Structure of Glutamine synthetase:
Amino acid sequence: MSVQHILDMIKENSIEWVDFRFTDLSGRAHHISIPAIEVDENTFKNGVAFDGSSIAGFRGIEESDMVMMPDTESVFVDPFTAHPTLVVICDIYTPDGERYDRDPRGIAQKAEEYLQKTGVGTAAFFAPESEFFIFDDVRYDSSMNTSFYSVDSVEGVWNTGREEEGGNLGFKVMKKGGYFPVAPVDSQQDIRSEICRLLMESGLRIERHHHEVATAGQGEINFRFDTLTKTADNLMKYKYIIHNTAKQYGKVATFMPKPLFGDNGSGMHVHQSIFNGDEPLFYEKGGYANLSEIALNYIGGILYHAPALIALTNPSTNSFKRLVPGYEAPVNLVFSKGNRSAAVRIPVAAVTPKGSRIEFRTPDSTANPYLAFAAMLLAGLDGIKKKMDPTKLGYGPVDKNIYELSDADKKEIRSVPGSLEEALDALEADHEFLTEGGAFSEDFIQNYIDFKRSEAKEVAIRIHPHEYSLYFGC
């Protein structure tokens, strides 16, 4: 889309404000709004200045000046603002015109460029299944003498006996009972449909939506795959629209991996494949699950580097409350066709050659999508480069319910790291695959590790409410 086309779009839609956005290290969006009458070709040529020292993990105060450079292919009209606003996603540059090596979006673009340089293929396609909860109420605090959280939902299984204004109308979602009964058990059909309407108006192709397994308003909306950076852009848009639609309904949405104890958490299963022009490279009729050797090597790279990858795909302490056996959590570093207990699943139902893909089920939506997708691609490419055979490396295939295997058989299966600290240790020990093609810099990786270790320490030193249950009477 040309700059002139955007300027015409501003006039045609009576746009009053242009909102320039970028994504920080943690995957949160930030923005600066400029009056539309002040936006012209020079805005797109020179960019928008901002203070990088005020963004956690970005720059020191002595080198704080940074520039947002608008991407003309990323615009959409904000569906929530009272004053018509056009959103433009930006890349981050230093004042001397160099790409900033800690810009997550720039890392994603460099990973795509590296794919083309390898000669393996021309494009990598990604499709995340990002699950979420929509609650009616959330309260939490953590201070010197208090630590608690409380969430509530009219659907919650704990509310079967609650006295409600007008009477309790029943039809709660039972524990693990949310996949996927019709209304009135599913009380969020309309809000998900409204989210989908807004997503489609903003440019996403929606494939379906439904209630998910857990009680208390867990849902999933699937949008169509695209290339790596565009899919990350779409996921940022997806989360923004879900958060704000929930707020308009007087509710609150969260992508936190494990907001409830004792029921399924929210993952982000990531489907991915590589094409060379129009040719799908992951398909070979007659192979295991009709996968090509390239696809198997890609899987080998994902599983071999998984302990380090998880520091980027599951980058929160809460991520590891989800990654425990028994809640459909993909904690086992094996691959399998159609098996949801494996970290890598190969979809086989109604799959065409062009739809042939692998699904990495371990990630969750606390991940920065630009970093997570780039890291997965680079791990897979390393597997292709080194011809990593996942079968010879001991990663399966395992076409059984892993949770029902004998203890002896389970011992042969490697598991994901048990904590964020373990994952960060793995990333520190194994990250050369990320620096291929200059996608991730050594500076970025060390800065990221330090940033996340600080988060882990903040949680580790705080008193947990359950410790009172265990130890107060000692």
Summary: The chain has two domains: 3-100, 123-471. Residues 195 and 267 are 19 Å apart (CA to CA). The radius of gyration is 23 Å. The mean pLDDT is 94.
